[in-house]
Amino acid sequence: MSKSKNSEKNSERKKKDRKENLTPWKPGQSGNLKGRPVKSGCLTTLLKEELAKKCDDPVAEGKTWMDLIVESTMRLAIKGAPAAVREVWNRIDGKVPLAIMNPDGSNLFGGKPLSEMDDDELDKERKNIEKWEKQRKTSKLKK
Q: Taking the model in full, what pTM does it have?
């Protein structure tokens, strides 16, 4: 095979391997023209549909079921119902992260998210975990 034929094959192979040749659609074009199928039988979908409907009770004054649930949750929270208070706080601020504790009772991560720790702090916490695992294993062996 001559050199020119090899270079032609290589250039054809490179063209085939290009990223734009690997995608079957043009930019901005979708392969799923009908979109994601509707979850018609899903309980969450059915519940959301019902919650958005207006309550047919005349006392509801034209409010949706969702409005009524929010109001009743707020009333319970004001009365001091722990579950309602917790739900309101969780919806407003998000759930409080679970603290992971050291064997001595201190917070494993010092209250700082892992994503905000530098390499030295992460290394220190890794060593604390290893120390804790070693203590746990030795305490199990003694039993």
A: 0.43
